[in-house]
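Supplementary notes (optional reading)

For those who missed the lab, this is the record we used. Protein: NIBL1 protein. Length: 743 residues.
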Amino acid sequence: PCLTWLCSSLAERTGAVLREFCRCYREQFGVALFNSVRYEIEGAGGPQAQLLHRKVPLEDHVIYSGNLFQYIEENKKWRNRFCVVPHNYGLVLYENKLAYERDLQPRVLINSAGYKVLTSVDQYLELVNSSLPGVTPKSGHSPILKCPTDFPLILWHPYARHYYFCMMTGKEQEKWRAVFQDCVRHCNNGISEDSRVEAPAFTDAIRMYRQSKEQYGTWDMLCGNETQVLSNLVMEELLPELRNTIGPRLKGKAQERQRTWIQISDAIYRMVYEQTKAQYDAAMAKCEEERPQMESTIRTDMDQIITSKEHLASKIRAFVLPKAEICVRNHVQPYISSILEALMTPTSQGFAEVREVFFKEVTDMNMNVVNEGGLEKLAEYMEKLSHLAFHPVKMQSCYEKMDQLKLEGLQQRFDVSSTSVFKQRAQIHMRQQMDDAVYTFETLLHQEVGKLQGKDDLCKSIQRILERVLKKYDYDSSTVRKKFFREALLQITIPFLLKKLAPTCKAELAKFQELIFEDFANFILVENTYEEVVLQSVMKDIMQAVKEAAVQRKHNLYRDSMVMHNSDPNLHLLGEGIPIDWSEEYSGQPEPSPATDKRRRAKQVVSVIQDDEGVLPYEVGTEALRQPEEPGAPPSSPDGVQEIREALAKESLGDGSEAGERLTNAPTSPKPGADVPSEAKVPHATPASPAPGANVPSPSAGTACHQPSDKETGEEVAPPGSECSPPQPLGTTESSEGVQTEF
């Protein structure tokens, strides 16, 4: 009865949060659509980027691969796994390297959005102890996790399951840490910026919803795609109550209670995710259905809508602006320069490091090409250079500069929960600028190669093009950084101002609703117009602060008046051409046979960390690693994890067979003999899990096995009967139920 009530309560609470959010989303969708059409019609000025932008940076590439040890929670054993990071930055764990090369089923797929990468067990235990207040192991008792080496890597999430890995050396740990952090950084940035309607509508709806709950300031869990972000939003509200309800009912030692709580939280998160995905998809479909009519109205009545909005803004401005200006003058203006300086120093150091790494790599390539064979070696080195921006280890020195970002007392004053939002954003800009510089360099060099005569010409041409690209990089990086500083200052100060003004202004906003014509109510919102007025009250000071920093040439920022016009008028036309394949054009190697093992030909950005399967030290149980995996005993608790998982699945998905069907998110495997996609283009098809108890024939050697989809949002578990591994007993990580979820 308790579990039934819990599941029913969770579904009800989740539904209530989602209904309120979807209302906010529908409102913001109309506003975002109007802004998008207006931008399209009116356009917007701004400095033109000098560097080219690559459209599909990592097509047909694997980022990283190598062996590591993973801790299997259910049977408390460490297992060797071969980990592959494909172009979508999912972590894909195989039984071993041979399973990967034979295109067999992976053990687990992990989407790392929302995770933190920890490098010590003590860090992890501190977070675990704080997740369930009042449950802390006594001194001298065994902790929840023991690592057999001194080099652990742990993926921790506030709601989802945790993943435990370890390496044999500190060098391996550093490399894998850089890779994991790159995966987290990429997956966190899961909301597409290409959309001018859906993305701003979603992020504004999230902000409006949280502000309605008196939650202002930055939010650390705006991570992943829309469904993941919404699931985090729901869990943020549900978790405190769940902790108080379930925590006291857990039995056993402190470590077992902590372990049980982590698994229960993960099960609830999965249920919330499924419900969230269904309701959000329905809201999206409804908005898309109404979009053509709304867009037609906007285009027809654009002038009237703009006039109506300006009239509303003038009335709100007269009411709000005097109060906002006083608040800015007393509480914001004195701190803008301090915040800006704190942001500029590490960010500019990071972009300077990007420039230095790019310069060094091209210079080294130039020397090596000249010394080792001219054009014959050019293809080999350019193939490596073309993916420099996506090399986690080489880019790490750039990303690490942002670790110095500290707002100190300003963080508490402006209610900034963490600086991680700004660090990650700057790091993404660094990676993009590096790739733009590399792509511009290779495009210009490719244009010149056919005209060159000998090594000397090649050397001089590379040096000349490098200097041109560095000038373009300096200009673009200045533009990107100034924009980043302005956005960060607004992101810090606007929520603070809204919170300060709320007691005197928010209750009075309702009276302005009557100023909006009913026909335009979908495109003009009082709350959004009010925020625009507040933004205007501080924008002048922010623009002035950034301008002064540029005038003083602080951190190599260019003045706004310095504009590069048509320095390469035909360059952007070159960027629209067919992607360059250096190895095919200049390597001189014969075309490989189609029968050649596709996996072995996969292009990889970073060399393999550890090719041979390692063995953990004998003292920590070498023999145990060689034993077959056995089912682990369920935690000793009246609300056992397995029981809770089953009850949650039944409540949210119907009976057990239906759960297996609905949690599977792709069609069945292709039939034996079917064409298998190239390994580098990671297939999107995922084999469906068979119903529990069904007889599963062993697939033939030619059967295509599952690979990660670009849209994976987390862990997947291999179905039973796949040729990758024998069916696992219940209770192990490789669940014999073969249930796949989007976590």
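If you only remember one thing from this example: The longest strand covers residues 61-72.
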